[in-house]
Amino acid sequence: MSNHNYSQYSNNSKKNGGKKNPVTEVETKVEEVVETPVEVTAPEVKMEVKPVETTKPVTEPVETKEEPKTVVGTVGNCTKLNVRTKPSLTANVITVVNAGEKLTIDPAKSNREWFYVTIDNGEQGYNGYCMKKFVTAKL
Questions:
Q1: Which residues 6+ apart lie within 8 Å of 87 measured at CB?
Q2: E strand map for 24-101
Q3: Strand locations in 29-124, DSSP E?
């Protein structure tokens, strides 16, 4: 331990001749802080949107097999064929066609099981449906 006399640094300014001791007496200065709001604005960003230009690939025209407007068929695989008002076995029968007779078929109005046909027997014409399985035709 050292023999230092710390009494000379006491807080008593009378001992020090009325002078302030710089070691023990520290002046603190408090500054008042005033907060000032700052307005922050972001710069306006303008974006221009341009449509993307696309080009269509060049393709060769594809040949499509167009269905003919009418086809001639022949009644076969039966002796008599019913021609009906609708493509249904329960629809009314319009006329009956004999085996070997010609029918004009409209593929656009036909479906998977029935042909839409026109029959002209010279006296009167009929339009109706008959089952495909009883008609021979090249479509």
A1: 111, 113, 114, 116, 129
A2: 71-75, 80-84, 93-98
A3: 71-75, 80-84, 93-98, 102-105, 114-120
Residue type, 76: G
106-134 per-position pLDDT tens digit: 999 999 999 999 988 777 788 999 999 99
Q: How far apart are CA 63 and CA 51, in angstroms?
A: 34
The Cα 22–Cα 13 span in angstroms is: 11
Which letter, b or e, does each residue of 5-20 get, where b requires 16 or more Cβ atoms within 10 Å of its Cβ? eeeeeeeeeeeeeeee
pTM across the whole model: 0.50
- Compute CA distances 101 → 39, 40, 59, 97, 104, whole Å: 96, 94, 46, 7, 10
